[in-house]
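Quiz preparation item.
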């Protein structure tokens, strides 16, 4: 029977075990308190709004990365796909009406993800190799279609999306609302939907899942396709924020997405991870960058700090499993 929080804390070494088990929330709270102490502008509406805007794009692809990692896979192509799909959206929104441009971009993203899913699920290619190849192809295609230069929105639909992406509703940035809605959908799917339970089961024990009659290849194919569709959603948001699509967008975002998922407590072996913890991981990465920016620390040391946080989070997972 599960212990209550009070019983966990009162047991020998209970407080330390509790902190390790809930390390993602603990790290998040510590960073928020530290941010408030070092800067009197941290809790201003402008700073918090900027923070949410900055993490929303990476946050959306992190949810896609989570469902891939839950099956024991990895998707290195999402950053490059954001670049290609941002360019694609810019071309489409300058050509077609806005709803059709959005729909086509997401369908293209789903299709690109399906390519990786097919290679991994049906051709038994290692996820690392399949998505690494797609990462290179997608980035190259982005530069080809954009002819090496950003494509600016020139139509009413594009300007409407730019206005949407840079404004707020009830004080919350619109793109952050989109991100939060995707997190909620992922939470419901993983906790209450058959699809979510099955991909967790596949990540926990793929062979047992196959023997129990689960169509493992089908679900492994679908998680990469969904990751592609979410990369398309992130691309639309990022392009709309800047009013252009550029092949340089999403650079190394796949690494930030993996970091967010790992910091959120997911296992790279599959079968373990939640959407809410991934949200926390995304916010933790955003807080690190925000704190260092407020302290006027250059971008290069920020990568060192992020790497140290990832190592710390993984070590805490090892202690938790003991």
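Solution:
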């Amino acid at each position: 029977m599960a212990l209550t929080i009070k019983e966990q804390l009162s047991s020998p070494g209970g407080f330390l075990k509790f902190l390790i088990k809930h390390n993602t929330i603990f790290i998040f709270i510590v960073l928020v308190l530290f941010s408030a102490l070092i800067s009197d502008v941290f809790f201003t509406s402008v700073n918090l709004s900027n923070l949410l805007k900055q993490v929303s794009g990476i946050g959306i692809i992190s949810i896609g990365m989570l469902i891939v990692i839950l099956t024991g896979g990895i998707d290195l192509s999402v950053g490059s796909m954001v670049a290609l799909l941002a360019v694609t959206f810019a071309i489409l929104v300058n050509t077609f009406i806005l709803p059709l441009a959005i729909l086509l971009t997401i369908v293209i993203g789903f299709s690109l993800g399906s390519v990786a899913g097919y290679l991994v699920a049906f051709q038994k290619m290692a996820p690392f190799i399949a998505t690494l190849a797609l990462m290179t192809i997608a980035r190259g295609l982005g530069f080809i279609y954009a002819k090496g230069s950003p494509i600016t929105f020139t139509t009413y639909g594009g300007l409407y999306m730019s206005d949407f992406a840079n404004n707020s509703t009830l004080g919350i940035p619109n793109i952050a609302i989109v991100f939060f809605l995707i997190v909620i959908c992922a939470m419901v799917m993983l906790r209450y939907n058959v699809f979510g339970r099955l991909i967790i089961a596949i990540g926990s024990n793929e062979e047992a899942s196959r023997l129990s009659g689960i169509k493992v290849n089908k679900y492994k194919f679908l998680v990469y396709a969904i990751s592609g569709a979410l990369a398309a959603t992130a691309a639309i948001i990022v392009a709309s924020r800047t009013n252009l699509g550029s092949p340089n967008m999403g650079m190394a975002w796949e690494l930030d997405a993996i970091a967010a998922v790992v910091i959120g407590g997911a296992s790279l072996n599959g079968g373990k991870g939640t959407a809410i913890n991934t949200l926390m991981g995304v916010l933790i990465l955003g807080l690190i960058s925000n704190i260092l920016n407020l302290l006027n620390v250059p971008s290069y040391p920020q990568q060192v700090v992020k790497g140290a946080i990832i190592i710390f989070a993984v070590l805490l997972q090892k202690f938790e499993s003991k």
